[in-house]
Amino acid sequence: MAITAHFIDNEWNYHKKIISFSLVPNHKGDTIGKRVEDVLKEWGLKKVSTITLDNATCNDAAVSYLGKRLRSKNALIGVGSFFHMRCAAHILNLVVRDGQKDHELSIESVRNAVRFVRSSPQRALKFKECVEIVGITCKRKLGLDVSTRWNSTFLMLDAAEKFQAAFEKLEDEDPGYMEFFDLSGPPCSTDWEKVRAFVIFLKTFYAATKLFSSSQEVSLHLAFHNLSDILCKLQEASLDMNSYVAPMVSNMRIKYDKYWGDVEKVNHFLYYGVIFDPRFKFGYVQWSFNDMYGADSELAKKHIECVKKSLFNLYNWYKSEHDKVVGAALLDAPSGSTPRGETSTQTSKSSLFTRADAFKQHLKEKDTIDNQNELEKYLGDPCWGDAEDFNILKWWKENSTRYPILATLVRDVLATPVSSVASESAFSTGGRVLDTYRSSLSPAMAEALICSQNWLMPSDESESNVLDLLEEYDITDSICSEFRVGVTIGATAPEQAGPV
To answer: Is residue 32 within 8 Å of residue 491, measured between CB atoms?
Structure first.
């Protein structure tokens, strides 16, 4: 199991660090929860904002266990309503796979055609000749998919449909091609039309998956844009009864509504991300709900009111925490006393300024009242103009003095990862570390290598340069913070080659 901590530091820089890569005896919820709790203790992490996992039943049990334990230690934000973030990439995978069932035969037919071409160099060479004969100039390469990952299926179909004419020519040029298939035969023109419609329809979903899978920078403020786009895409496709994708939309919509349809069950951080983007604020959420569910519909009003209420409740919790800190600081400050040697005449003289001092105190209290709700002030200010090089963390760094309490809230919210890809990717790296020469490494040494690589590698370093960087630090063969952190967890079974 890999555990990754995400946080934004005082300079408004985003960080993600693998803090544990260890064996667990089983995948029971309590076992996972206790392991996470132990890791938090080891690192001295006393504040946790969210935990992001996929939708396995054991993970729900782990969240329940952790929630109780952390709540008893006052280690959660608010009452813990936003603690569990379901992996958006995983949900999107479920949504698309439910829809893809209606095209399963056509997809399988194209998959077998690609499998034939890639099964031997001779077949690949023959296919290349067919590509040249029909005059296809596309430079894309055919690749097989991983059936459990819809985005890889999308990429396979997106490349294959561009070579339809070459596959059809292959039927005449290579007798073995026809023999490779069972009674269903190679993909027909209808199969290609279905696949092409499937690919066009799912481009929005693929773009969303890429965004959700980002782990090198803040992405929470972009998540709601994609969720609303996907819902509108589903609604639009359901109305086009002449399309091949119309039958698949109903299954996809059911799965979408299961996880993202009820605003009371969705983690509201998905909405807060765009609200704390100064280019959009709450107005965008309000407009989107009206656009998705109908202007001024009861459902839209319910969603708007629910998000607004929870947002102000969270801000009030942060403000109360801030007031506690300020109050404690005042109590710790030395109390005022009359300086030794001060005469009664001096005391009498200072009383002349009593009303002036009282007026100054009045101004301080007025300023406090005027600025006590920074959230209303932020939402009331004009939206920031859009710019190509806009950086949300840079904007909040420059404006944190205007909204000191709100900035603390925003820093915790924006650090939240929307998918568990950051942790699951550790298993891809694990394949390089645990090669045939190091397959007997102890779990502790494997963890040391994985974590060292992650901590020493710059966040913008490309994966291809990882080994060069490790050699630079000469660790190829050898080997706390007060920020609230968002945690992602990825786990894989021993017999599986990749993350689940």
So the answer is: yes
- Alpha carbon distance 51, 62 (integer Å): 10
Prediction pTM value: 0.79
Note the pLDDT of residue 27. 87
CA atoms lying within 13 Å on the CB side of residue 441: 23
Sheet holding 48-53, edge to edge: 14-21, 2-8, 485-490, 48-53, 84-86
Contact 16, 6 (CB under 8 A): yes
385, two tokens: 């103009």
Q: What pLDDT is recorded for position 480?
A: 34
**pLDDT per 10-residue tile (average), the chain, 500 residues:** 91 92 90 94 91 88 93 87 90 88 85 92 93 91 81 90 94 88 83 90 88 83 93 88 81 92 92 96 94 88 94 94 81 55 45 59 56 86 84 95 94 92 67 59 84 73 40 34 56 36
**Counting Cβ atoms within 10 Å, is residue 190 exposed (0-12), middle (13-18) or buried (19+)?**
exposed
Q: How many CB atoms lie within 10 A of CB 372?
A: 12
Which of 65, 103, 101, 58 lies closest to 83 in space, CA to CA?
Answer: 65
